Sequence to fold (878 residues):
Amino acid sequence: MTNEALQNIITTWIPELEFSEAESQFLNITVKPEQLHELMLQLKNNNETKFDYLFCLSGVDWGTDLGVVYHLESTDYRHTIVVKVKTADRENPTFDSVCDIWKTAEFHEREVFDFFGIKFNNHPNLKRLFLTEDWSGFPLRKDYVDEINMIVK
Amino acid sequence: MLLSITKNIHEWLFSLMPENIASIVEMTIIAVIYLTGFAVAGLFLVLMERRIAAWFQLRRGPNRVGFHGILQTIADALKLVSKELTGTIKADKFLYNLAPYFVIITALLALAVFPFTKDFQAFDINIGILFLIAISSIGVIGILLAGWSSNNKFSLIGAMRSGVQTISYELSVSLSLLTIVLMTGTLQLSEIVEVQKNGWLIVQGHVPAVIAFMIYMIAGTAETNRTPFDLVEAESELGAGFHTEYSGMKFAYFFLAEFINMFIIASIATTVFFGAWLSPFGITESIPLLGIFWFLAKTFVIVFLMMWFRWSFPRLRIDQILTLEWKYLLPINLVNLVVMAIVVWLGLTIQF
Amino acid sequence: MEPIVVNNNFKSEEYFINMGPQHPATHGVLRLLLTIDGEIIKKVEPDLGYIHRSIEKMCERDSYQQIVHLTDRMDYLSSNINNEAVCLAIENALQLEVPERVKVIRTIIGELTRIASHTLWWGVMGMDVGAFTTFFYGFRDREMINDIFEETCGARLTMNYNMPGGLMFDIHPNFIKRTKEFVAHFKTKLPEYDALLTNNIIFQHRTKGVGILTKEDAISFGASGPVGRASGYSCDVRVHHPYSALDKVKFKEAMRTTGDTFARYEVRIEEMWESLSIIEQLIDNIPEGDYKVATNAVIKLPKGEFYQRVETARGELGVYIISTGTKNAHRVKFRSPGFSNLSLLNHISVGSKIGDLVAIMATLDLVIPDIDR
Fold:
């Protein structure tokens, strides 16, 4: 399915989504945190989109906003889409978990929590994955400072 | 020659001191000779295993210490003797220290009854085979103790597996030997050899004897905890199994016992199935001393067979091991026993 | 109704065991927290991070050329393919067309890397189920590939042969000859693998019906590579999103439908045959030309987001670069195949025995630095 067709279908579900194809090889959707789970569920279950393969889930620190980027592919139709969700809340960023939609998200969300401090509602086992429990701070955030281990050029 | 020397020493000892003390001294001397002899033999079995493994695995194996690496395992043993004995703090100290001796002593005890050649047998007991079976089942207590007292879960799993496995396969070992005893009518090893002067028992008993031998080899391999039945150690699953927490000489005891046990299993097979020290077709019957050569030659062929198993087969899983024993080997064995009884009853054995 | 109280004196109790970080079957520093009832596994919880080097953070600091070298240290058994992934991502971002020669050489080296990785896996697989001899057979054949790599680029494990714009240097004059020798040699040795391990009855009993992963679960857990394909899920990036010279070759995607440990084993063996066929198709037709195109000494990617997927020996590797137009990346994310494959370990190993867990882990073919990036 082409990107325009995808865009047309998805707009009918939730109108206030931002679509963009600039600066990327995929169709990008930016969604508000509260609509994230609803959109994801539709993307997975709708017979025309059927995005059943979440092949990448990355946390991103855009400087002011923290967010998560989901790369989705349909194994039937082989079309790809990127969903982005952002929040300006750096103290307590929280999104809905997509573990119940794609099981692979469980580990990937733990990784994001570990490095960005982004919390996921309804995650079955949200705790640090790579770092120790008593680690302070979230290393992949841009404002993370570690004077001993980090070499700043 | 050798026999006359022992006779001379025997007479000299008895002329020197009262009868009771003399016999104790004599026994001690024999025990010391056996201990040294088989400790060294065990080391060479280790070397043999390593060289054979290397041969299977496209590598050279130990070839630096001594001529073609012949002193390698001696050097290893010296290193193990000199190493520190470590252990866990929370181990049950008494049992932890006791366990290796259980294993090594039972292994060495069994060696006493083998007829290496005519008249060269330390202890010709009239229940020889029963004695062997009884002794070999004590060894498992040592392994259980080692696993339990180490206070390590991996060791404990290894010990549990060992208990389950050894007790199960004990049945098959005993039953397959019993099948042969039907033919000989005696448990005494020297008499079993005597019977075989009319043809080795594996030939005399033809089909049921061959089946018994196969079952014996499978069960014997399981008894010695070697691949494909090495679940007790299962290095990729349990690290080192029951002897994880042992070091130095105590570890060496376990290690040596494994190899001596393999030698024992092969020796029993030689004695019971392949005519012990009897030469094939009686070609060297006139030179009794060559019996040692024939005994060892047959034993090492079987030892080689067991090493061959070890370096070619993957390991079984615990439930598969039990299925193999209780669902296949045991029923086959029982039927085989009946077949053998019929063969003996109808006089269908092959006699030369 | 009152509940019936069964007074069981032999009640079983679950216990907890710590497999790793130092354990022969975890092939590195993976720690598994096992909850076991006797021999039966109730729960597997991986504890990661023992060798986490924060490569993603380092990538935000380093120049694009330097990033390539870091990726060697992720999945060190398919280091060439990792390098290739980053180079492709950077080249796509710069819209740089590399010469045909580079594409073909990259593909050949990539397939050789895949075979090297699979031979090592095969040796270790045998060892994990208790057959030690396989290890040496696998290493014998891997050694020939490593020798080819050593002659080509001077390194045996972490090659660093690719760079943005092409290759570090041209192939060695002996490369074609030695690769052909290897292909001929390996064709006689692969049947030996079957004789030694695949057809062994004990091995088949140990692996068939163990650790079954259904197709739906494979997709949901993001399984990729041989793990996904053994469940009948067509997930080969080389087929669906071909890169380098892979669109010029014909090969069959190795697939099984049972999804058990034996299927994963068979898929990898078949993949070695397919890789040999890819090499054979390309080795005689390496086009003449330059081995690189010049890039700026300081590479600045245009503003935007770039994603490149490749198929490593373990599965799908994704490189996600967010650039703000400077000489450093704003964010680099590596989607590693091992990480997703590890996440399904608990799902498929619950209810099996300790020995099965080791066999399952062997066929997931985990490389821990790949998971702990």
The mean pLDDT of chain C is 87. Residues 54-371 of chain C form a domain with the Cytochrome-c3 Hydrogenase; chain B fold (CATH 1.10.645.10). Chain C touches chain A at residues 48-49, 52, 54, 56-57, 61, 92, 217, 219-222, 224, 233-235, 240, 302-307, 309, 316, 318, 320, 322, 331, 333, 335, 339-340, 342-344, 347, 372 (CB under 8 Å).
